[in-house]
Amino acid sequence: MSIYVITEASSGTQFNCRSDQYVLSALQQQGQACVPIGCRGGGCGVCRVQVISGDYECGRMSKAFVTPEQQKQGIALACRLAPKSDLVIECVPSQLVPGRCKPGSKSNPIPNEVI
Amino acid sequence: MKKGIIRPGHVQLRVLDIEAALKHYVDLLGLIETDRDEQGRVYLKAWSEVDKFSVVLCEADEPGMDFMAFKVVDEATLIQLEKDLIEFGVEVKNLPAGDLKDCGRRVQFVSPSGHCFELYADKKYTGKWGIHETNPEAWPRGLRGMKAVRFDHCLFYGDELAATYDLFVNVLGFFLTEQVLDPEGNRIAQFLSLSMKAHDIAFIQHEEKGKFHHASFYLETWEDILRAADLISMTDTPLDIGPTRHGLTHGKTIYFFDPSGNRTEVFADGDYVYPDHNPITWKAEDLGKAIFYHDRELNERFLTVLT
Ligand code: FES
Ligand SMILES: [Fe+2]
Fold this sequence. Notes:
The structure holds two protein chains of two kinds.
Chain A: E1 3-8, E2 13-18, H1 23-29, E3 48-53, E4 56-58, H2 68-72, E5 75-77, E6 81-83, E7 87-91
Chain B: E1 5-15, H1 18-28, E2 32-36, E3 42-45, E4 55-59, E5 64-72, H2 75-88, E6 92-95, E7 106-110, E8 116-120, E9 150-158, H3 161-171, E10 175-181, E11 187-193, E12 201-205, E13 211-218, H4 222-234, E14 239-245, E15 252-257, E16 263-268, E17 280-283, H5 287-291, H6 300-304
Parallel strand pairs in B: 1-4, 5-8, 9-12, 10-17, 13-16
Antiparallel strand pairs in B: 1-5, 2-3, 3-4, 6-7, 7-8, 9-13, 10-11, 11-12, 14-15, 15-16
């Protein structure tokens, strides 16, 4: 297990994160507030960040907030972001296009653009 | 129940990982698995419920709620309500019996708030779990975690609350128990009931349609809520807020999140209503106290963290 330094670029905040934990829970444990804390399950999108530099892995995240395309570009949910090196991240909140529930929709996929 | 709708029947929730979700809904909340289907959906019930399931979990790319259903008294009522819904102007879709295992045909529609609802008349009656119908014991042994008693209600966030009120009250026969009014007199929250419960469903004004705030499960006592809080810590489950009391409904409550970010509530007690009771009004200026009676302060997360 290693400990990495996470830097949130817009606030300049730095905190430590173990390789076996997610960035958002490390931040919460250390009383930091540079990334908003929501559901901590990869579902609500409030902790959405752009990884500017560093290596990492991601747990399952809602595709409503991180499309596979965006994931390739380094977008992640901090509550599902596990560092494999020091990271520089920046908050990038998202808003969904409204109006997706259709009658009979089961696990309706989300083709809506995330703004 | 004046239009023949009895009670909430089930809710289908989307989760990112079904096995992780089962740890939450079965091991922690205490629901009981009753079946699975070819689509990989898992059917759950709380012990005191008489029908086969009340929660359906399905794995998906994004969490949230697929639909919430209400049970009606019989097929004739279902036929009538289907006509009434069409006349009201919502699009109605029929799902055949068996689409959900051991559930009769369902009439599905989307409310103006953007949420999918359904009505059905039949579901397999399996009786309360673990106790007999004759000389029943007080509770069954072998319950897990929080030992949830029943699926109770959902809170949804969406817009067009006035049209949604019209649909639920005038077409479906719910009545208003509590509301939050802004200084101009607009209803920004509406709590609706079919029964003596303070709410069977609730809506809060939000600019995006179709958002899910929480599914709520009933526990018997405040002591049970504290025990639920202990279990939340023991399992390192993300806590939202509580244990505390709501102003609205005066229920004692705790909120926490499932592993996909869907919010769960367990609550105890609270107010009762009869259909002749006047609705309770909370002022939007005092929304903090209306929602969290002790803190008297709204936390941002309650208003913005949704699936
Ligand atoms: S806190 Fe909800 S997605 Fe990260
Ligand atoms: Fe609730």
